[in-house]
Structure formats: structure tokens, C-alpha cells
Amino acid sequence: MQGTMVDVNTADGVADAYLTRPDGDGEHPGVLLVIDAFGLRPRIEEMADRIAGQGYVVLAPNALYRAGRAPVLPMPDFTDPDSPHRSAEQLKAEVYFGHADQDASMNPEQIATLNDAMDQAGIRHRAEVYEGALHGYTMSDTAVYNEAACERHFDELFALLDRTLGSQ
Q1: In angstroms, rounded to a whole number, what is the distance separating the alpha carbons of residues 24 and 39?
Q2: CB–CB of 70/7 below 8 Å?
């Protein structure tokens, strides 16, 4: 892969971004990788490189550029079992997901509502539930990382990109 930081001029400033592409010359379809709330960081670059390895040019802009160049905020160590950040996140997960467990119909009803709305709008779609995966499960630099769900995510993403864009 050929990855580098670039500056993207916008209407209200300059956004730093990570740009990566497959090795070699030639044209390749483009993918815009939208960052999570913690911003542009090594994990985002790893994900972009993985997509580029499948034959795509990937741009991951710092959506938080108005606050400064990445990293805008320090990344807490969510993988540290003694971290107060991790404990707070685990507590939230236990409270919120414990409630969801008490009402097993919550997720299926929400998914059915979304599917119905998409169907009525004539939008082609597919909704999937990744059992046991919490929000942020693809981020290996957080405590909610779920390797099996992340691998499934990338398999499905690559299948979607190949169907719609076709790597070269």
C-alpha cells in the first residue's frame, strides 16, 4: 500500500486526511472512510490500508479538522483494564444492554421498522445483527473490539464494494 497524509481544501479550512492506494499504477475505485468519534488515528489508517489492499483508493479525512489537525483529542486507553474510561464504558454497556436483554423484542422491532421504511421508500438494503458485538466493535484500540464480528464486517464490506464498485 501507498499511504500518506494529505491536506484537503474545504470551504471553511484545510482538513488533514489519510490517503492510501494499492501498490502499482492504474485506476482504482474510490472509497471514503468516515472516521468515528475518536478521530483520525492509527486504527483508522489500518482499516483504510486493509480496504486499499482489496484494490481501492481510500480517503479517510479528519472530520474534526475545524478543531485542529489529528489527533484532536487524546485517545484514552480503552484496552487498559484499570482505565477509568474503560470502567465507565463497561458500566454504560451493562446498564443499556442489560435493559435490552430484558426486552428481547427491542432490536428485532427496530430492525423491522427500519426494513419496512426502506421497503416503502423503494431502497434496496440489507440489515444484519451482529450478535454479541457492541457499538464500535471494529475498533481494535477499544475494549469493545470483537475480532469475529470485525472480520465478518470486512467480509461483508468487501463483498458490497466488489458488487457496487468492482475493484481493479
Answers
A1: 29
A2: no
Q: What is the pLDDT of residues 71-114, one digit of tens each?
A: 877 777 666 656 655 544 554 554 444 444 444 544 677 888 88
Cα–Cα separations (whole angstroms), residue 43 to 101, 164, 166: 30, 25, 25
Q: For residue 46, is pLDDT > 80?
A: yes
- Judge contact between 58 and 40, C-beta under 8 A: no
Mean pLDDT for the stretch of residues 126-136: 84
Q: Which of 108, 109, 110, 111 is nearest to 125 (CA)?
A: 111
What's at 156, amino acid-wise? E
Pull the grid cell for residue 167: 475493484
Q: Convert the pLDDT of each residue in 115-126 to its tens digit.
A: 899 999 999 888
CA–CA distance, 14 with 68 (Å, rounded to integer): 9
Alpha helices in the chain (DSSP H): 42-52, 84-102, 106-120, 147-164
| Sign of the CA dihedral with 102 first, then 90, 128, and 114 last | positive
Q: What is the largest CA-CA distance in the chain?
A: 54
Peptide bond just before 71 cis, omega within 30 deg: yes
